[in-house]
């Protein structure tokens, strides 16, 4: 059967944009190297033209330089054409990469949209509202429990606001009756009948010497110094 119809040839995949761009860049680099070599050769011919006198020898050098210059112009044209092709391939590559990125973005968005729809089916607004209502009820019950636990004991039930104000007025009246002597409240004043010297067992005030006379005091209440001691 293969001899009659022939065997199917294995076709190679077409080159990608990157492969084509790499191949053209490689050719461009090769042409650029040739142009550099021609530049070196032209520099040599220029030095020879400067050193030779006008005549047949100089004209021959000029002819060779002209031929090299034409080759250089040809290679420069090829180089520019290859660079233009590379630029076009780069633009196509950028466009292709942009389309791939857009395609991947759309695929990701579709997948996320599908997941969100599935999640929204499990979450309902009515369930959220019911949960919020239950939380509010639980908070109210918690507040009532705290108030109940914080209730005071042994407080007469028959005490109203009028009784409370009466108690406060009586307390204020009792505090107003406390007289003050020399700016000191009565509860801070010492008892007149209490003898602090006897309670503290303090020694008597010393007198002036063994003569039994009380030592004279100056205007500040301190023992007066005898005049004889002042005269020195």
From TrEMBL:
BP terms from Gene Ontology: late endosome to vacuole transport via multivesicular body sorting pathway; vesicle budding from membrane
Top-rank taxon, per record: Eukaryota
Keyword terms: Coiled coil
Compositional bias per record (Basic and acidic residues), positions renumbered to this chain: 20-29
UniProt keyword Protein biosynthesis, yes or no: no
GO CC annotation terms, alphabetical: multivesicular body
Name under which the protein is recorded: Charged multivesicular body protein 5-like
One Pfam short name: Snf7
Family: Belongs to the SNF7 family.
Sequence intervals crossing the membrane: none
Chain positions covered by the region annotation Disordered: 1-29, 178-232
Residue ranges the record marks as coiled coil: 99-148
InterPro entries found in the cross-reference section: Snf7_fam
The keyword Nucleotidyltransferase is assigned to this record: no
